[in-house]
Request: fold
Amino acid sequence: MNKLNRIVPIKWVNGALEVLDQLLLPLKEEWITCTTSSQVAATIRDMNVRGAPAIGVTAAFGCALGLKTFLTAKNAESPFDEKSLLREFSKVKDELGATRPTAVNLFWALNRMEQLVKTLADKEQGNNKLDNGNEFYDLLVKEACTIRDEDEAFCEAIGQHGLPLIPSDASIITHCNAGALATAAYGTALGVIRAAHEKGLVKTVYCDETRPYLQGARLTTWELHKDGIPCALICDNMAGALMAGNKVSLVVVGADRIAANGDVANKIGTYQLAVMCKYHDIPFYVAAPLSTFDMSIEDGSFIPIEQRSTKEVTTIGTTVIAPEGVEALHPAFDVTPAKLVTAIITNAGVIKDPDKEKVLALMNSYRKEQLNA
Reply:
């Protein structure tokens, strides 16, 4: 696919972050302009932007915007007060970190930006002071752009690593949206599908509608249709029947957080797909960059599950679909045990039958490669 024609949901334009409003898709393509960290936080919290990698990239730019006023007030004769700077960043980090608790890429990006802030703050206290606050700010923006560019490269690598797993004439089910809209570009699960389509391997993609937010119906079909990849929308409760009818070659989904043992948190409804795949002996793949792994938690039982508004279940758009007063549940994610995952496809390679030992082995191998690069 020509990079110039790729779907890109996040753009840095003239010192502002432009976010494609995914709540309006597929009916409208409108952009939200963010010039403050609070505006960035609102786009994440309200799901104008969503998908773990995209949230991380967006938050990185939010960090830069959040410190802009503080930094640009500084001049060469007025060095930073390190404590004040770190206190200011802490406020920005807390605001952005409170938006979506399950997506670990959010915290990965915030921690990476925090490390840069601390490094630059230390530099300010030494003999190699930056010329002014604008230079400091520019370095934060540069780091956010690097995170964005790395994510796109990671997705391309995921696509290539996933290719050997895709048979000819494949009929694929995917759940929610793990495409360009959920990343900086190209996608994780849809990155695998895009790479397979480019090789002529894809017969059709069955897109779960993904209640209650309908990301599959509104976003995944929009992406695939735009790229000319054959697809069909299915209700979430149709997948089992398709599998029973031998119409499914494999399932590939994204992830919002992966525990050290390979347990996977993804959009609610993922777990039941994995169970059905196990019963029907169909491969169940998860596609995610290494930044989605949370090695600080042993297994999926420790993954925080975001509880969203029940109104999002009892309504579709502005249309009420349940009697007033009826209770509804809305956990945004569920956890699929590693034993149900055929393989995790990462930017560093494929982990088949994942467990903690295999995850650690790939992590260590990747770190060594990066150090020697």
Notes: The first strand starts at residue 10 and ends at 13. The mean pLDDT is 93.
